[in-house]
Amino acid sequence: xxxxxxxxxxxxxxxxxxxxxxxxxxxxxxxxxGVSYYNPAVNVCxxxxxxxxxPLRKIAPGFKGVDFAIVLFWIVVAAVKVxxxxxxxxxxGFPNVVGMIIWLLGDFLDKFLDIYLGCFxxxxxxxxxxxxxxNALGELVFLITEPVQGRVRRIVPPVGAIDxxxxxxxxGIYLMxxxxxxxxxxxxxxxxxx
Length: 194
What we know:
By secondary structure, the protein is an all-alpha fold. Helices cover 77% and strands 0% of the residues. The chain has one domain (4-193). It contains six helices and no strands. The longest helix is centred in the middle third of the chain and has 32 residues, at 97-128. It starts with a helix and ends with a helix.
């Protein structure tokens, strides 16, 4: 049974590494959709990640708008998280590689979908209070969500003044997380520690 100080350490590590993994994925998404480098959120992500991403570009250059240096950096940080958590929290030693890969894939999808879920919710709130949309956060959320929301809007056009695309996307994200991602995470965790 883990000691209380190890539980506190693993909890703190889990929170800090998860927050950093969200920042890395947010940078990947912002770069892919073309958010301006003058946006304060982009500047924060660049400050927090450039120290590792710039050297990794020599190993993993970008291709078709996807910066593989960011993806590689995310994989490294996520693998460190999985190894530390299995070692500290579960006392399981080094995780099984296949299980760890499945776990990392599930974790990436979960965090990626969480970012979009949060952005769709923020955009819905901003649509109710238009004054909130005229700032750097509004621009960021619009640029992240509009490519996906626009496609859904073409399939299901607004009825009068009501746009159902955010609701459909929120339901879709929930279904993907509950039916696919949670199963990937459980399978990966189980395989990693056995």
